[in-house]
Amino acid sequence: MADAEPTSTKRISLGWLVCGGMALGAVLVPIVVYAGVAAYDALYGDCSLGPADRFGCGLREFVATALSIIPGGIIGFVVAYWVGRRHAQSS
To answer: What is d(CA 63, CA 71) in angstroms, rounded to the nearest whole number?
Structure first.
């Protein structure tokens, strides 16, 4: 019988982990912000007055979502870097 060689697990580098975390943060945070602004608009009823008000609410949702992309990337960077450094120290 042939001896099976153990496969070594490839570790992901800190750089790739941080890039992935930034991308994930830049996608997930705007989704959460969009849902939060939409829920706020639905609960407080400011967007049900007329077409001009609905346009303003849609524009507010778009601007809030667009402005949250950069902070989302920064949050993803910090979290991924922290996780990567802690994982490297424990190994």
So the answer is: 14
Q: Is the pTM of this model over 0.70?
A: yes
> From CA 56, how far away is CA 51, in angstroms rounded?
9
Picking from 72, 60, 62, 61, the residue whose alpha carbon sits closest to that of residue 27 is 72
| pLDDT tens, residue by residue, 10-49 | 777 888 889 999 999 999 999 999 999 988 888 876 676 6
Q: At what angle do helices 51-67 and 14-44 cross, to 10 degrees?
A: 160
Rounded Cα gap, residues 84 and 68, in angstroms: 24
Domain ranges, ordered by start, for the chain: 30-90
In this structure, which amino acid lies at residue 68? Answer: S
Does residue 64 contact residue 33 with C-beta atoms inside 8 Å? yes
